[in-house]
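Data card: per-record layout.
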Amino acid sequence: MTQGSESADSSQGRVSNLPNLMTALRLASIPLVFTLLHFFPGKLGSFMAALCVSAAFVTDFLDGFLARRYGAVTTLGKFLDPLADKILVCVTMIMLIPLERIPVWMVIVILIREIGLTGLRGIAAGEGVIIQASKLGKYKTAFQAVALVGLCLHYTYFRVDFHLVGMVLLWVALVLTVWSGWNYFRQFSKVVFSKKVPDD
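The structure for this 200-residue chain is written out next.
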């Protein structure tokens, strides 16, 4: 093997490891968001938490793009990527409850949907069926991300009430959450429940 090809392979290896590295960084940001919102809920701590959440969701977009672009999709990445997203969303929302920035019932609805969908995907996978992410689900994730950034910011900056902005976006995310969850369940029921039991 020539020196040039070795260099190319090394470069390719570094690029292919980037998605998993970004996912690991996203997981590492979760305790940081928890610490900031729990121990430093004031304006500075809220701003830093919003910055962490923003950076985490940016890396979520980038690691998916890089994984597809360079064919670096791995089994570990498939497992960790959605897990990191769900834990980040759940932890951030739960930490916003005692700060009275988010209604408890909204958090419950969103958590039930996320946990329920994870269960459905597990059952479907056991039947050899993969439930792909839908456009509605992707829109839901995008609105959730921006809403949580606004709710973390909470305070008024440049005459913009970020708590109000966050709540409006969260309502949109909630509608998409329920809608996409229902669509996933319909897709699941058509594939799994429609299978006929063979006659004895």
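Known properties of this structure: Residues 3-15, 196-200 have pLDDT under 50 and may be disordered. The chain has one domain: 12-192.

See the next section for split statistics.
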